[in-house]
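INTERNAL AUDIT FORM
Audit reference: QA-55
Scope: verify that the stored structure record matches its stored sequence.
Auditor: D.O.
Record contents follow.
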Amino acid sequence: MIMNPIILSADSTCDLDLELKERYHVQYFPFHILLDGKEYQDNVDITPNQIYNVYYEKKLLPKTAAINVDEYRNHFLPWVEKGYDVIHINLGSSLSSAHQNCRLAAEELGHVHVIDSGNLSTGTGLLVVAAGKMIEQGLPANEIAARLRERTSRCHASFILDTLTFMHAGGRCSSVAALGANLLKLKPCIEVDNRDGSMHVGKKYRGSLESVLVKYTKDQLSRYSDINTDLLFITHSGIDDHYIRLVQDTVRQVMDFKETHVTTASCTISCHCGPNTLGILFETR
């Protein structure tokens, strides 16, 4: 008899820290990073800082490759053969073909419940933690999957970009926009649409990164009247500890969270936004 009949699995882009990953027994599947003629596994044998260094030295950015159908099938098969159900939570479907590939593998195998997080980074991580708690409570896999799909619209993710250099290098904004933002010291807030994970530019802040992070944090926490204070993520792409402490202090001034976790974004996320990107991510009720 299987004591715990549900395996919790997620794309590595959910960006949990090691403590939460171990607490909820999360099985990661890393995305592929293609850089300078070599292939890596995201956050396994390459880090965001290594990517930034290659860009500064050679002006090369990586290409990211989604997990394919066969890879997902091989990931799930040993658990399904042993009689487990699997809950797998994907990066938002508008951002990658991974979700569609995962669904195809799941349909072939059965007993795999695939969730489109409609999000990225720890916006997805919020759902992974929620799934872990429901597994601990003994809920069946079908019910957990249904609850998670209803919960996606309550997960909120946004980030402040310190520079548009990497967005421009990756073809995601024009050179005019990047130059103008740098000259005017504009730092845009990138907001995630939690229906599919697509992103758009929200408020454009002006000033030093220090002042902008304080304003952004207060704005996000005052934006909703029904924030779930169980868990907050502060997720960054590589940033000085001074800024992290500043955001932590600002959060504490506004609201008390039972748990706050600081995590580093995966290479898949970080390579598009560059260093000194930081966001706060949370749920509403």
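Auditor finding: record pair retrieved intact. Confidence is low (pLDDT under 50) at residues 173-181.
Action required: none
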